[in-house]
Amino acid sequence: MRLQVSICLLIIQLPLFGQAYFTAGGVRLGTENGLSVKQRILKHSTIELGILSGFKTDYLSVGVDYHRHYPIFIRNLNLYAGLGLVSQRFQPQAFEQDVFKRHGVTFTGGIEATLGRVNVAWDYKPMFFLGNSDRLFASNSGISIRYVFLRNKDVKKWEREQDKKHRKKNQRKRPKLFHRDG
């Protein structure tokens, strides 16, 4: 009985939690290293742009992922899952002239936490390459450390201020229908 009550309370609280950022950007360290920028597009949904490079090869990877966030247990802690597109350009050996390109689909699963202006995330990304490619599958995982440039509460504050200005502007323009003379 206690367990059932605890689970019900947890489920009731889940909608109260969510990602605390609107725009965050920073570094990603792991199988591939580079830059990562995340932008909230809807409630519990983000788009991530990653520009990554490998250690041992002349390698560049650019990916765009959609993530759906699932809040868990405590404020600003989320699990997320998503999918996206990836494009890679690489040269296997520095002395070779051949440059290979491959394009594919990525799936993502991870966990993230935001404390103040710092967002830390770990994820795993399997990639499936399409078309005539030297390999059909690859994966990477890594830790992203991002600075939160724009928090949700900053955006909400700005929206309230804009709404207040809009209402004041409309009140001044509204004609008075009933007024007394004399």
Describe this structure in words.
This protein has a single domain, classed as Beta Barrel (Porin), CATH 2.40.160.20. The radius of gyration is 23 Å and the shape is elongated. Strands 1-2-3-4-5-6-7-8 form an 8-stranded antiparallel beta barrel. It is 19% helix and 56% strand. The N terminus is likely disordered. By secondary structure, the protein is an alpha+beta fold. The longest helix has 22 residues.
Nutshell version of this structure?
This protein is of the alpha+beta class.
Break the fold down into its secondary structure elements and pairings.
Blueprint: H1 2-13, E1 21-30, E2 33-42, E3 45-53, E4 58-71, E5 77-91, E6 100-115, E7 118-130, E8 137-151, H2 152-173
Antiparallel strand pairs: 1-2, 1-8, 2-3, 3-4, 4-5, 5-6, 6-7, 7-8
